[in-house]
Amino acid sequence: MSDAEFRAQFRSWDLSNLTITDVENYLKVKDTILVPMASFEQHGPHLPLWTDSLTAETIAQRVGDQIGVIYSPVVWMGYSPQHMHEPGNGRGTITVRSSTLLNLINDVGRSLIHHGFNRIIFINGHGSNIKIIDPVLRKLRYETGALISFVKPYMENYVGLMEGLMENPIEETPGWHASELETSQDLAGMEEYVRMDRAEFTKAHIPDFLPRSFEKKDGMPDVEFEGYKYFTFPMDHHEFIESGVIGNPLRATKEKGEEAFRRYSEHVARGVLELEKVEVNVHTREFVDRVL
Asked: Looking at the domain assignment, is residue 225 inside a domain?
C-alpha cells in the first residue's frame, strides 16, 4: 500500500474522530501514536490558562498531519502546584498531585499499548511535568517493552530551534512564562483570547524568605549565590513574580508564533519518522490491572 493510499483511508489523524475500524486499519500499517500533554495554569493577565496545552496540542496535530500519525486528545491536567497562589486569589490553575499525573499517564499509555500501539511519543508543553515524569516513562518501558519517548518542544533556558527568531535579549527571558515565545504562539493559535492590552514586561526577583545575597532571574527552582546555581528551593510562582509573567511579551507577534510552531513540528516529525525505523518488541500488552 502506498502512502497516498494509506492516507486516503482517514479523514483525520485525531484519535477522537476515528472509529474502531479506522484504528484497526491504521494498526495494520503503523504502530505509533502521539500523546500531547501539558497543564491548565495561570499565564498572567494577558494569556489564557490553556497556553501550555495549546503548545502540545498544536505540535501533535501538525506532526500527525505532516506524516500521517495518529495523535490522542491533549492530557490537559499537569503538575502545577507552584501556580496555585494563595487561597481565594482567583488564579484559575487546576493542578494534580504527582501521583495522580503518574497514574494517569501510565493508564493512558497502557491503554494504547493494550490496543496495539508499540511507540508512544509524549509531546509535553509544560516544564514542571519534567520534574516528576521519569518514573512512569520507565515503568511503561520496563513493564511492556514499548518504545516510550518524551519530547519537549518549547524554550526556557535552551534556545534551540528558536535561534534567531526571538528578539528579546536573554535578560528579558524570551522563552519563559508568558513572555515573547508563548505570547507569539498564543497569537498564532488563539489570538481572540490574547489580551495584549494587559501585557507588560516584568522580571523575576528573589523571594522574600531568602537573603538579598541570593539572586533569581527566571522560573527555575534554583537560584544564584555568588554567581553560581547550586541552591534549589521549593518556591511558589507568586513568590518571585507577582503578575505571573516572566519576561517581555511586548515583542510577540502572530508570525513568530507560526514560525515557532513550524520549526518545532517539522523537527519532531523528522524525529518520529526515525523512531518508526526502530525495531520494537512489546512483551506485555494486556492492561490487566486496569481496575485497581
From this structure: no
Residue 249 and residue 178 in contact, taking contact as beta carbons nearer than 8 Å: yes
Residue pLDDT, tens place only, 174-226: 999 999 999 999 999 999 999 999 999 999 999 999 999 999 999 999 999 99
Closest C-alpha to 141, from 111, 110, 116: 110
User: Grid coordinates standing for 22?
Assistant: 479506522
pTM of the model: 0.95
Closest CA to 104 of 73, 145, 62: 73
The answer as to whether 123 is a domain residue is: yes
Query: Which DSSP state fits 183?
Result: H
Alpha helix (H) ranges present in 97-133? Answer: 98-115
Burial label, 53 (beta-carbon count in 10 A; 0-12, 13-18, 19+): buried
Residue type, 16: S
The count of structural domains within the chain is 1
Asked whether residue 194 is assigned to any structural domain, the reply reads no
| 227 belongs to a structural domain | no
Q: What is the tens place of the pLDDT at every residue in 20-32?
A: 999 999 999 999 9
Q: What is the CATH number of the domain that holds 127?
A: 3.40.50.10310
**Cβ atoms 15, 64 nearer than 8 A:** no
Expressed as residue numbers, the domain containing 61 is: 3-157+261-275
